[in-house]
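To whoever is on call:

I kicked off a structure prediction for a single chain this morning and the downstream step that reads the tokens threw a length-mismatch warning. I double-checked the sequence; it's 251 residues and nothing unusual in it as far as I can see. Pasting both halves so you can look.
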Amino acid sequence: MTPAIKYFLRGPYIEKNLPQQYNELVKTIGLDYTKRREVIFMRKYVAPLVVVALLCLPLSASAGAISLGPAPDSEPTYVRLEGTVQEVRGLADNLNPNPAIAMDLADEKRVVLVIKPGTFFLDGVDPLQLKAGDSLVAFYDARVPTVRIFPPQYAAVALLPKQEGIGQVKLDVYDENLLSADGQLLLHIGEQTQVVNLDGTPYEGEVKNVLAVAYYSIVAYSMPPQTTPEKLVVLPVAAPEAAAPATTPAQ
């Protein structure tokens, strides 16, 4: 026994504060006074530490078992906004160099979505027919610098109508494992999954390292969350430069 333990066990305090049944047990099995105090020390202080260490082992093992993809980023690459159109500026005027949509979000915060030639319009959204009162879902690239003005302005990457019963929608780049760039969603392409191009025609390419919009309803809350999407719209890697915005047909 180490000198530190001997010092700690000095005196009868620990022994006399034990339950009488325990004292009788250690006497019955023939332990001398010093050995009994070692048993007391082990029982009161060492054993709880061993239990705590054993409880921590499963946590360490499970943490080491997660090996798919990088750690999730704290923020998504493409940020989703939902709101109601309040004003449409210059979408019907080809001479306007900065067409935009003013939209009020659910928290009554107003944002301005700047429409670029490469903005994608999905699910039948017609930029020429947009009007105040329409409900939209918009995505913008969080990596693109923004001007600090009020209301905030974002370059819209994609716009689609907000529809009841459509489930969830996520725009992101999906890697060779179909893990989103922010690490927050892993896709599994099922037999019922529609994989289409922006114009609605079947996508014939390899579904990996693609910029796509995933439509899904049920999510398995694992790490990372996983889903089998109902539809995956694969967008062109390079944004189209044509004057007319790119659109997909209505669902």
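Update from on-call: the warning came from a stale cache, not from the record. Cleared it. Sanity check on the structure: Residues 78-247 form one domain.
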